[in-house]
C-alpha cells in the first residue's frame, strides 16, 4: 500500500528519517571505502589493514544493546542525537590519528563511530513502528532509500577531500564525516516519534529465548546476518584487491560508490516487490544475487569484474536484508520489539564485524578468488532454510509467521 495514504504527521516523520538516513548513512561508506586503505598505510602488518573497519563493525554490534536501553529509557531522539555527537568526536579522533600516524588511535576512533552506526541502523525500525503492518515493507524501503543519497554523499566526500590535507591523505575525508553528522542534528531534533518504551510496558511479552528459538526468528535473523556479513566480507577486501591488481585508489572508491548505489537504488521498488511476491522469496532472490556476485568476482581481475561483482553484491544485499528485516517484523509483538530488534542487530553486526576482520586475513593468506569461494556454502544453507520455512513452521508448536 502507498505511504501517501498515511496522515501528514507520519509522512513528515518518515521524510525526516529518510533525510537522517541520507546523512547518517554516509558515515559508513566513508569508513568502508578508505578505512582499509588508511589502515594499510598506518600498520606495518598487512594482515591488520582491515582491523579498523572491523572495529567499526564491532562498535556497531556492541552498541546495539546500549542504544536499545538508551532508547527505552530516554527515547529514540536522545539516543539518535547521542550517536551523532559521538560520530563527530570519532571523526575528529580519526583525523588526529592520520595526522599523527597512530594506527591504534585510528582503530579506536572507528570503533567509537560504531555507536552512530547502531543508531542509524535503528532508523528502519523507527519507520516500521510508525506505520500499520500493511505499510511496513514500504516504510522500511523508504528509509533504506535514504542510503541511495548516502551512496553519493559518502564516496563523493572522500573523492573531493582525500587530498585536501597534503601531508595526511584522507584526513580531510573524516573532517567531512564530522560535518555531515553535524548537519543531521537539526533534522533529528525536529523528529516527533512516540516514546519507544510505550509498547514495551503494555501487553504480555514472551521471554526472549522463546522468540529466538522460533523458526521465523531463526530464518529471518540468519538471512539478514548472511546478507549483510557476506556483503561486508567481500566489500571490505574489494578496494585492497583492486589496488593490489594495479587499479587506482580512485577506481576503488568509485567502485564502492557503484556498490552502494546498487545497495540502496532498488529500494524504490523493493517494498512493492515484497508486497507482491512475499518477503521470503525476495530474500531468496537477494541470496541468489550474492551467489552471482561471487561468480563474477571469480571470473577475472579487470575493472569490469570488480565493479560488476560489487554492483551485484549491492543488489543482493538490498533484497536480502530488506526482505529479512520485513520477515523479522512478523516474529514479535509490539511489547517485544525492543529486545528482539536489539538481538537481531547484535547477531547481524557482530557477524559483520567478524567478517570484515576475516576479510583482510583471508585475502592476504589465500587471495581474492578463494575469498569469494567461501560464500557458496553459506548461501546454500540459508536458501535451504528459506525454502523449508513453511514446512518448519507447520511442524513447529507455535508458528509465528
Please explain how this structure is put together.
By secondary structure, the protein is mostly helical. It has one domain: Growth Hormone, Chain: A (Up-down Bundle). The protein contains 17 helices and no strands. Helix 3 (51-74) packs across helix 5 and helix 12 (267-277) crosses helix 14 (303-329). The longest helix is centred in the middle third of the chain and has 30 residues, at 215-244. 58% of the residues are buried.
Brief summary of the model shown:
The chain has 401 residues and is mainly α. It has 17 helices and no strands.
Secondary structure blueprint with pairings:
Layout: H1 8-24, H2 27-42, H3 51-74, H4 76-99, H5 103-130, H6 136-161, H7 171-189, H8 198-201, H9 208-212, H10 215-244, H11 249-264, H12 267-277, H13 279-297, H14 303-329, H15 337-365, H16 368-373, H17 375-394
Protein name: MFS transporter
Domain Major facilitator superfamily (MFS) profile: 216-401
Keywords: Membrane, Transmembrane, Transmembrane helix
For the record, what is the CATH homologous superfamily label?
A: MFS general substrate transporter like domains
**What letter string, H or E per element, gives the SSE order?**
HHHHHHHHHHHHHHHHH
- Proportion of strand residues: under 5%
> Considering DSSP H and I runs of 4 or more, what fraction of the residues is helical?
over 70%
CATH fold description: Growth Hormone, Chain: A
Distinct helical segment count: 17
In the CATH hierarchy, the architecture is Up-down Bundle
